[in-house]
DNA sequence: ATAATTAGTACACAATCAGTATTAATTGAT
DNA sequence: ATCAATTAATACTGATTGTGTACTAATTAT
C-alpha cells in the first residue's frame, strides 16, 4: 500500500489520487468499481477522483472494448487506463565500455534506442559528450526534440553521493570528483537524476523485470566489474554515503592480485568479464568476446561453462554471506554475463552450500529479465521518478 | 515526519493525532502553539486534537509551572505532557545462559528488574516457566499484578518467524518448532510480542541507546553466540523469513572446528565468550568468567586484551564486508563482551583495514549505551509497540 | 418483455482542517 | 494602578473531502 503524506485534507486527496494512479500503473486497465475494490476507497470517491483525473487528462476511458466481465451479466465496466502523458523521458546507461540511450514514452514504452562502444572509464568528458549526442539522435528518431523531454535519468559506472551528485570514490581517475548529472544537464539543458549503474539495474529489474513485487532483493551486476543494488523493504538501499552494494571489493583471495581499488584479491579481480575471457582464451584460436563466450556456453562448450560456473560459485560465495545477513527473497543476476545459465547455477550452488539452509530455502536465484537493458530501464525509472527511489 | 496511514478522514485524524503524540514523546513537554509549529498542523486542529486527548487521558496539562517564555511577554503557554498511561509493560530477555525480566511504566521507566542464570538453550520449557515466575515477582515488587499489564515483549535466543511466531532454525533442539510467544502467553494470560535477542538488542539501542537517530545501523551482539540486528532505513530489517542478521555463521576459517549449526569454521566458533575464556584460561589459576576477563582487560592485562582485540578483529573482518554492502552510519557493539574497549577497537581496526575507505570513513563504531540491558529494553520497546518495528 | 446483475453517479451528510475573530493571561511602560 | 503589547488558546465559520444511499445505466438470462 502507499505511504507518506502530509496532514491536510488536500494531502489526503492527493494521497488517494496517488493510490489510484499506482493501481492503474501496476494493473494496466481497471474499472472504477475495480479501483474501489482494490484500493479500499469508496466508489463515490473513486468516481470523483477519476472525474478530476479525466479532466486533467491523466487517465483515459476505454469504452465498449472487450469489456471482460466476470459474472456474465450486469452493466459492462468502463475501463480506465493511464493516459500517455505528453513528452518523453530519456534514460542514459553509461557502462564501463558502452553507452546506451533510450527515449521512451512516459508509460516507459521505448521509442528509440542507441548503443555504442566507448571507453567510458578513461574519458568521462568524452562519454558525456557522446551521451548527449546519442540522446539528440534518439530524440530525432522518436520524432521529438529536447523541448519534449520530461525527464532524464542516468546510470554511471561508479558510486554517486546522491546528495551532492558527485562521484565519491576514487576508482576511476577520469571520473573522480565529477558531477555527471550537472555535466549532462549542462549539455542537454535539462535536469538529470543520477545513480550508479548497479542501482540503475536494480531499479530496472525492480520496476519492470524479475524483481517486481519483491520486498528484499539483491541485484548483482556481473560485467566489467561486479556491483550490487540492494532492494530492502521495497526500496533501493543507498546507505549513509550512497555507496551501499559495493560487493566487488570483498576480498576472496588473501594473496590474490592487486585490484584497481588498491586492495588485494577482490572479487572483481577474480570474476570480471575480461578475466574470464583471459582464462578461456588459451583454449581457442579466435579472439574471444563476452558474447562469444556466452554463445560457446549455450552450445555446451565445457571450458566456457566451467569458467562461468566457477565465476558463479565465487560470486555465490560472497552472496551467501550477504544472504545470511539480509535474508532476501531473490537474487537477480544482471550484467553482460548475467544471462549465462552456468553462471546463475554456479551462484545457486554456492549459495545453497554456504548460506544457512533457511536463508537459502527462502531464496530464488534468477537471471534478470531485462538483460542488457536493465540499467537503461532503471535510468528511465529514475527519470519517471517511479516510487522505488529512496 | 510520520508516515503510513489509510485513505479516510478518520485515518487522517488518527494520523494527525499520532503526529502530535510523536512530537510529545520526543520533546517531552510542548504547548499547543509549539505543537502547531513543530507538526505543521494548524493551531485550531491541534487544539481540537489535544482536547480529545485530554478527554481520553492520553496527555496532561502542566499549568502554571515554570512556563518558560521566549519573548518575555505574552500569555504563558500551557505545557502538555504525555500522561503516563495506567498499567505497566513487561520486557523479557532470554539469553543463552540468563533470564532477565523488567517491569516498566509505559514511559519506559523501569520499576523492577530480575535477573537469574539459567541454561536457557537446553531447557526451553523451564526457561519460560522461570520467566513467568520472575515476571510475577517483578510485578509484585512494582506493586502491580497481571491485571495491570498493558503489554509484554520478549527476546529469545534464536530466529523467530515473525508471522507464525515459531522458532524456525534448528540450532537449539529444545527450542525447535516452539512458539515462545504463545507459550509465555499461556503462562501469563497476556499476548506477547517476540523477536530474537539480537533484534531486541538493536531495538533497545535504537529506541533508547547509542543508535538513536541513525537510519542505518548494525547492532552486533557478541556473547555466547554472535548475532546482529540490522536497522536499515530507520527500521529493523527482518528479511523474508525473519532470519536476517545471522552473522554468527559466516565462515571465517575454511578448516575450522565444526559449529553447532553443522557448518565449519563459523565466526561463532572463533569468538564466542566461552571460546575466549578457554583461550585465556591457561594463563590464569583462578576460574575465569566473562566479567573477570573484562575486568582483567580494564586493568591492562595484556593477555585478556589481546584475546579481546583479536576477537574484535575477527568480528570486524566479517562486519567490514557487511559495511561494504550496507554502508551504515554506525556499528553498535553489544552482548556481554561488548563493553570491552579492546573488542571495540579491534572491530574498528579491522573495519578500517578491510572495508572501503569511503564506507569506513562514514562509519562510527561504538559500544552500546545500554550494556546488558539492551535486550530487555528492546523487549520493552516491543511491548510498547514503539514505531521502529517492521 | 422482465428480472437480475453489475457499473457508475447525484446528493445529502458528517468529519475534518484552516482562517479569522475573540477571549485569556501575562509583561512592561506610563 | 492602568493600559498597551504580546503570546496562547478557543469559538466560529467556511471549504474540502470521503461515505452511504438512492438512483440511473447498460447488459445478460429467462
From TrEMBL, chains A, B:
Full protein name: ROK family transcriptional regulator
Source lineage: Bacteria, Bacillati, Actinomycetota, Actinomycetes, Pseudonocardiales
Signal peptide region: none
Coiled-coil regions, chain positions: none
Domain HTH marR-type: 19-63
One of the record's GO molecular function terms: DNA-binding transcription factor activity
Domain of life: Bacteria
Alphabetical list of Gene3D superfamilies matching this protein: 3.30.420.40, Winged helix-like DNA-binding domain superfamily/Winged helix DNA-binding domain (1.10.10.10)
InterPro entries: ATPase_NBD, HTH_MarR-typ, ROK, WH-like_DNA-bd_sf, WH_DNA-bd_sf
Family that this chain belongs to: Belongs to the ROK (NagC/XylR) family.
Amino acid at each position: 500500500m502507499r505511504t507518506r503524506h502530509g496532514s491536510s485534507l488536500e494531502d489526503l486527496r492527493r494521497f488517494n489520487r496517488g493510490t489510484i494512479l499506482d493501481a492503474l500503473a501496476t494493473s494496466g486497465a481497471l474499472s472504477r468499481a475495480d479501483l474501489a475494490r482494490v484500493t479500499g476507497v469508496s466508489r463515490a470517491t473513486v468516481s470523483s477522483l477519476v472525474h478530476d483525473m479525466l479532466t486533467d487528462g491523466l487517465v483515459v476511458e476505454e469504452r465498449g472494448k472487450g469489456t471482460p466481465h466476470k459474472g456474465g451479466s450486469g452493466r459492462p465496466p468502463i475501463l480506465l487506463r493511464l493516459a500517455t502523458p505528453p513528452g518523453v523521458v530519456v534514460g542514459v546507461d553509461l557502462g564501463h565500455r558502452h553507452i546506451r540511450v533510450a527515449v521512451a514514452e512516459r508509460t516507459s514504452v521505448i521509442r528509440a534506442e542507441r548503443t555504442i562502444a566507448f571507453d567510458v572509464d578513461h574519458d568521462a568528458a568524452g562519454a558525456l559528450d557522446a551521451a548527449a549526442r546519442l540522446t539528440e539522435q534518439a530524440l530525432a528518431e522518436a520524432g521529438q526534440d529536447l523541448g519534449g523531454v520530461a525527464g532524464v535519468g542516468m546510470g554511471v559506472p561508479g558510486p554517486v553521493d546522491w546528495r551532492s551528485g558527485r562521484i565519491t570514490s576514487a576508482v576511476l581517475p577520469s571520473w573522480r570528483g565529477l558531477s555527471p548529472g550537472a555535466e549532462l544537464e549542462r549539455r542537454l539543458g535539462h535536469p538529470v537524476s543520477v545513480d550508479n549503474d548497479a542501482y540503475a539495474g536494480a531499479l530496472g529489474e525492480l520496476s519492470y523485470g524479475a524483481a517486481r513485487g519483491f520486498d528484499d532483493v539483491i541485484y548483482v551486476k556481473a560485467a566489467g566489474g561486479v556491483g550490487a543494488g540492494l532492494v530492502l523493504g521495497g526500496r533501493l538501499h543507498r546507505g549513509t554515503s550512497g555507496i551501499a552494494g559495493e560487493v566487488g571489493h570483498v576480498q576472496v583471495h588473501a594473496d590474490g592480485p592487486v585490484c584497481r581499488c588498491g586492495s588485494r584479491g577482490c572479487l572483481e579481480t577474480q570474476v570480471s568479464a575480461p578475466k574470464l575471457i583471459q582464462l578461456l582464451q588459451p583454449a581457442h584460436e579466435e579472439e574471444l568476446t563476452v558474447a562469444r563466450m556466452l554463445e560457446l556456453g549455450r552450445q555446451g562448450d565445457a571450458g566456457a561453462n566451467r569458467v562461468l560456473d566457477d565465476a558463479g560459485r565465487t560470486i555465490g560465495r560472497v552472496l551467501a554471506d550477504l544472504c545470511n545477513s539480509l535474508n532476501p527473497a531473490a537474487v537477480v543476476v544482471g550484467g553482460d554475463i548475467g544471462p549465462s545459465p552456468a553462471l546463475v547455477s554456479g551462484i545457486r550452488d554456492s549459495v545453497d552450500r554456504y548460506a544457512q539452509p533457511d536463508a537459502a530455502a527462502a531464496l530464488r536465484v534468477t537471471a534478470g529479465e531485462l538483460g542488457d537493458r536493465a540499467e537503461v530501464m532503471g535510468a528511465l525509472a529514475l527519470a519517471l521518478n517511479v516510487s522505488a527511489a529512496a
